[in-house]
Write a structure and sequence with these properties.
The complex is a heterodimer of chains A (122) and B (644).
Chain A lengths: L2 E5 L3 H13 L3 E5 L2 H10 L5 E5 L7 H10 L8 E5 L4 H9 L2 E6 L4 H13 L1
Parallel strand pairs in A: 1-2, 1-3, 3-4, 4-5
Helix pairs in contact in A: 2-3, 3-4
Chain B lengths: L1 H16 L3 E6 L5 E3 L1 H5 L12 H7 L2 H15 L5 E9 L5 E12 L6 E10 L1 H23 L3 E6 L3 E2 L6 H6 L9 H5 L7 H14 L4 H7 L6 E6 L2 E14 L2 E11 L1 H24 L3 H24 L5 H21 L2 H19 L7 H25 L6 H4 L9 H17 L3 H14 E3 H19 L5 E5 L3 E4 L3 H19 L3 H6 L7 E8 L3 E8 L4 E2 H10 L11 H6 L21 H11 L3 E6 L11 E2 L1 E8 L3 E3 L2
Parallel strand pairs in B: 12-14
Antiparallel strand pairs in B: 1-2, 1-5, 3-4, 4-5, 6-7, 6-10, 8-9, 9-10, 11-13, 13-20, 14-15, 15-19, 16-18, 17-19
Helix pairs in contact in B: 10-14, 11-12, 11-14, 12-13, 13-14, 16-17, 18-19, 19-23
The chains are: A alpha/beta (122), B alpha+beta (644).
């Protein structure tokens, strides 16, 4: 139903999320870190949602979010962060840069799918 | 000029419209002025109230007056420039109105006391009522929080516990130092949760609190709903509910409700067991007794065989697995056919492992698993058997009730056949006729063992229930076959007598030892042929018939006048009277006092008699006490057959 950009440096993690998203009928584009993510975002103007890990080599997830916010050439889409940690600092930084929700790993399939649907419906 | 007039206009316009009652006091001239509204808000007509300080004082509720005067003293002396008070004002109809009163003052430059005072009253009756309702509700909530048997609290930003929580929380957390403490530390202390899991909850809390409700939807599964916590040294199952409290879609705080559900869990487990049992009963009732018992016996044999093979084997002989697989497959197939659902699952699982071993030839056997799988299936079979046996009372050996190719013959056809054959036998001497006749006899006349079967079977479980040692049973039929058409009444009579023997006759092991007997009791059933009739003698070596108790009961039930002097035999006869039971408790087993009368009726209807013979051993002939006895069932000629 929607085109989603999935960014995580771990293939295992990406596969888990991808399977769930595919099962809900979404098309998934992948990237391994922030830099790749930005590239894919740039070349695919019909991406509707980004799901990204925080800790990645090259460029981490929150930095990527900041880049998307500040640079006009990137389409502004809702971003969901995947993470194993969370603190106030991260939340604030995320909120300023388009993050609408945080998902703790490991995620629960049903909750992920319904949550994504809610966001896409807004 | 114009400005002044304009202001005056503005003021008067405003005054006419506002709801407050305004007053003004020129202390130099003494002139006290009340606005129209001041009067009308109290239900008076304009001009009805005398504009003076005295009037004001008189209108104030006596309970509020003291405080007002205290404040006014300072006010009038110029010590305070203004005031804000609340007091009640009496209306014309003598009800009270809650007013918020404000006042200001004006002083001349350099003056200590004011020259002019001015103020107004606002009707706050509604607000006061709302306040009262709120405080009542708050009190109710506090009451609930104080008394409920749940731990209720909220977690706020920073993942700490808010200071308002239910009193019971202190019990559940084992401390009163709760407010502003970290939730996860207190919640998961002394629980079965690992450090990693606790950290996950902590992260989830940070992710959720203060964020869009989406965060809760995404991550609520990280919050654990059940923990095992040690409270007051007792391991308890605690059930936790997490509820997001949102404001404008943002989760302000998390409401947490903790409940000790150890008891509920126990009840749930009980209920589940009951349900399973009901399901099993349904499955069993769908099958005939014979088929079911045959399945049980066959399956048990397989298990025994399998266990033996496994324990005796030392070199992992693959033939054993083949046998195990074959047997288990049969069990599974039969269970499937009979729809004994819990067994199909168990046997299927066992089969899986055999499959695995067979396909991976070099895999070393896990003998423990093989044995425990068999054990599991065995337990499953036992469960079905027990339910069928105990709860449904379905007994009877497979071979009795089911033959591999069986035919049901009605009694009259059989009797006809026997009659014809006998006539032929008398008329001719073909040896084959003798054989035919004997086979027919076998069908028609049953040996004692067959009839006593039900009684024999119940001995074991009964003795166990009553905590007595299973009595030894001696069956002697001395070549007598008993006609099938008195089988039923005879069967049930035997059943009754044997049950009574175990529950009332045979004593507990301790008692028996004291009486100089062996721990194990003995019941004997013997059939003797007397030519014109046969007799079945049943006796036990228990304490005997309680004649004194029977006599007592008979007197109480007005079956015999209190001053009568019956013989022991007379008293013994009373056991055939319905309703007379000397058993002090109605046990499941007997003691209802209907059995013997029913047994006698059925036997009589079938042409037999049943009597009780006291064994004479008391020196004092007519003393009523425990007396050993035997039952004698007499069977007429046509109803039995004596073969040597």
């Amino acid at each position: 139903m929607a085109k989603i950009l999935l960014i995580d440096d771990s293939e295992t993690a990406r596969v888990r999320v991808k399977i769930d998203l595919n099962s809900a009928g979404h098309v998934v584009l992948e990237a391994e870190n922030g830099i790749q993510g930005l590239e894919v975002l740039n070349t695919n103007k019909d991406i509707q949602l980004i799901i990204s890990d925080v800790n990645m080599p090259g460029m981490d997830g929150l930095t990527m979010c900041e880049k998307i916010t500040t640079d006009n050439k990137y389409k502004k889409v809702p971003i969901v962060m995947l993470t194993t940690q969370c603190d106030e600092g991260m939340k604030i930084r995320g909120k300023k840069n388009g993050v609408v929700a945080w998902i703790n790993k490991p995620h629960k399939t049903q909750l992920l799918i319904s949550g994504i649907s809610q966001i896409l419906a807004r | 000029m114009q400005e002044k007039e304009k202001n005056l206009e503005r003021f008067m316009f405003l005054l006419g419209g506002i709801e407050d009652g305004v007053w003004d006091w020129d202390l130099e001239t003494g002139e006290f002025w009340l606005s129209d509204r001041s009067s009308t808000m109290l239900g008076y007509e304009v001009g009805e109230l005398t504009p003076s300080f005295k009037t004001l004082i008189e209108l104030i509720h006596p309970d509020d007056l003291g405080n007002m005067l205290e404040v006014w003293t300072e006010y009038m002396e110029g010590k305070i420039p203004s005031y804000c008070l609340q007091y009640r004002l009496r209306k014309k109809d003598n009800t009270y109105l809650w007013a918020e009163a404000r006042g200001i003052s004006a002083k001349h430059e350099g003056g200590s006391e004011p020259y002019r005072l001015s103020g107004y009253h606002t009707d706050i009756t509604v607000r006061k009522e709302q306040e009262r309702i709120i405080s009542e509700k708050t009190a109710d909530i506090h009451n609930m929080l104080h008394n409920m048997m749940h731990g209720v609290f909220t977690i706020v930003s920073g993942n700490t516990i808010h200071h308002e929580y239910s009193s019971y929380l202190e019990v559940l957390l084992g401390t009163s130092d709760i407010a502003n403490r970290k939730a996860t530390t207190l919640l998961f202390k002394d629980t079965d949760l690992g450090v990693n899991r606790i950290d996950q909850v902590e992260v989830a809390l940070t992710t959720i609190i203060g964020e869009d409700k989406l965060a809760f939807d995404f991550n609520s599964h990280m919050l654990t709903n059940e923990i095992i916590k040690v409270i007051n040294g007792v391991e308890s199952i605690i059930h936790i509910q997490w509820i997001p409290i949102t404001r404008n879609h943002i989760v302000d705080k998390l409401l947490v409700i903790m409940q000790d559900s150890t008891e509920i869990n126990r009840l749930n487990i009980e209920a589940k067991k009951q349900q399973e049992e009901l399901a099993i009963i349904g499955q069993i009732l769908n099958i005939s007794i014979g088929k079911f018992n045959q399945f049980i016996e066959g399956s048990k044999r397989f298990i025994v065989e399998g266990t033996k093979l496994l324990t005796e084997d030392s070199d992992n002989n693959p033939e054993i697995i083949k046998t195990l697989f074959r047997n288990m497959h049969t069990i599974k197939g039969n269970a499937r056919t009979l729809e004994l659902l819990y067994l199909t699952d168990l046997s299927h699982e066992a089969e899986q492992y055999y499959q695995e071993i067979t396909t991976h030839v070099d895999l070393p056997w896990n003998k423990e698993k093989l044995l425990s799988d068999l054990e599991l299936v065995s337990k499953g079979i036992e469960r079905y058997e027990q339910i069928s046996f105990r709860k449904l009372g379905r007994k009877g050996r497979a071979s009795d009730l089911l033959t591999s190719r069986g035919v049901f013959v009605t009694g009259d056809i059989l009797e006809n056949l026997i009659g014809f054959t006998r006539k032929l036998k008398d008329q001719s001497s073909l040896p084959l006729l003798d054989d035919i006749y004997n086979e027919l006899m076998k069908i028609n006349y049953l040996p004692l063992e067959r009839l006593a079967f039900g009684a024999v079977d119940s001995i074991y479980s009964l003795a166990k229930e009553l905590e007595k040692i299973e009595p030894a049973l001696s069956l002697k039929n001395k070549g007598v076959g008993i006609s099938h058409n008195i089988a039923e009444p005879l069967k049930s009579a035997l059943m009754h007598i044997v049950r009574n023997a175990i529950s009332h006759g045979i004593e507990l092991p301790g008692e028996r030892i004291l009486a100089g007997k062996t721990e194990q009791g003995k019941i004997s059933i013997e059939v003797v042929d007397f030519g014109d009739h046969a007799e079945v003698h049943i006796e036990d070596d228990g304490r005997g018939l309680p004649l004194h108790l029977i006599h007592e009961k008979a007197v109480i039930q007005n079956l015999i006048p209190p001053d009568a002097t019956p013989t022991p035999q007379d008293v013994a006869e009373f056991i055939f009277v319905s309703g007379l039971s000397t058993a002090s408790q109605l046990t499941q087993i007997s003691g209802r006092g209907v059995g013997m009368e029913a047994a006698r009726t059925f036997l009589n209807n079938a042409g037999c008699t049943i009597n009780i013979n006291l064994k004479d051993h008391q020196p004092e002939k007519n003393k009523l006490t425990f007396v050993p006895f035997e039952f004698v069932i007499s069977i007429p000629n046509e109803k039995y057959l004596f073969t040597s």
